[in-house]
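To: structure subgroup
Subject: Chain for Friday's discussion

All,

I'm putting the inputs and outputs inline so they're searchable in the archive.
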Amino acid sequence: MSHPLEKFKHCPKCGSSQFIIHNEKSKKCLDCSFTYYFNSSAASVGIILNKKEELLVAKRAKEPAKGTFDLPGGFVDMHETGEEAITREIMEETALQVNEAIYLFSIPNLYNYSDFLVHTLDLFYYCKVNDFSTLKAQDDVASLQFIPIKKLSIEDFGLPSIQQGIKWLKEKEAQQNRLFNRY
């Protein structure tokens, strides 16, 4: 596997081409001694259930994994919390207003964006929505639908972290009658 900073050829501080591998997660400039560490980008993922405890599933309109199932979400912007990001992303992709976002767990992921492999840390949130009347697929979502959790097929989801999240959700659902009754 290539170094995660392989495509970074010049030092971002001084512009030198003497920007070499320092270790498995960083490069160092031989001219100005600047060391750049490659860290994961934060992303948010929303788990939204209707009153029947069916999961809101999106179909991806763009690559990567175009045409496969996904959950609403996206990258966390600078100066934004995970909760703010998932609320914004859900509004952008579904036109739904999140009333509360409750952090559940995180999963590391690799996301291929424009032929660049982005390491992400996907933050999963249980998102409470009171009004589904505005539900509409938009932004990078081709369609939206509610699916009973028991009928979800992990293989229908195209991104590895989402597959792991769906597996968690199915296991959680199998352990109890109501998924999030403690909230």
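Points worth raising on Friday:
The chain has a mean pLDDT of 93.
Residues 160-175 form the longest helix (16 residues).

D.
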